[in-house]
Amino acid sequence: MQTLTVIIPTYNEAQYLEGALYCLKFVDEIIVVDSMSSDATVQIANDHGCKVVSRKFDNFSNQKNHALQFATCDWVLFLDGDERVTEALQKEILEAIESNTHTGYKLNFPHFYMNRFLYHHYNDVTRLVKRTNCHFEGNVHEKLIVNGSVGTLKNKVLHYTYKGLVHYIGKKDSYAWFQAERQLSKGKGMSYFHLAFKPLYRFFHEYIIKRGFLDGVPGLAVAGINAYGVFSRYAKLMLLKKGLK
């Protein structure tokens, strides 16, 4: 019988972590890799019998690769504290790891914003893998590299990613600094064309091509804020190039 470890990276996730752990009673091992939280995150993890690994945050890939060293099961599922595994997905995950059809699986994450799930604003991300056949690369939007075939599970992960407008915009600004610094280190240039066209294209892609308009006002808000995130990245790159951070 195949066994399953869940790895959850955390930083001040006390508000959400308990809900995530409640949905994970079907797994064999839970590892919480914590970035020195100042709230009750670590206490909650300990109370639920999790294996807690504390590590100062430098980037997302290093954090998860570090946690992988402590996993002991055949398979690993990577989740965030604000994500929830439904009963239907639990059953599908267990069937998938027993079937041994693929080395990894993509999961679908519709985002939650303004009290509703946005089924046209989602991500398909590889999160379920055989432990010995994977590693992460990338600093901000880290990518799970899998040595083998990757399938897709049909049931969705519930993702409570946006905790309000201020949190959402703050998250975009934080990512924008990471992305701008990475682009600067690679010597990538930018122009006013990037500032004008790239945000407009992001809005068009999410609201029209991905049919975000079907998600109503929340879909419009998300497309607009994500377009702002792109603008913010290039604006910050311009500041970095001028030494004005």
Please give a quick description of this structure.
This protein folds into two domains: 4-159, Spore Coat Polysaccharide Biosynthesis Protein SpsA, Chain A (Alpha-Beta Complex), CATH 3.90.550.10; 165-241, no CATH class. It is built from seven helices and ten strands. It has helices spanning 14-22, 41-47, 60-68, 87-99, 165-185, 192-209, 216-241, and strands spanning 4-10, 29-34, 51-54, 75-78, 83-85, 104-113, 116-130, 134-137, 143-146, 150-159.
Question: What features would you describe in this structure?
Answer:
The protein has two domains: 4-159, Spore Coat Polysaccharide Biosynthesis Protein SpsA, Chain A; 165-241, no CATH class. It is built from seven helices and ten strands. The protein has helices spanning 14-22, 41-47, 60-68, 87-99, 165-185, 192-209, 216-241; strands at 4-10, 29-34, 51-54, 75-78, 83-85, 104-113, 116-130, 134-137, 143-146, 150-159. The strands form two sheets. The chain has an eight-stranded mixed β-sheet, with helices on both faces. It has a two-stranded antiparallel sheet with strand order 8-9. Helix 1 links the parallel strand 1 (4-10) and strand 2 (29-34). Helix 1 runs parallel beside helix 2. The longest helix has 26 residues, at 216-241.
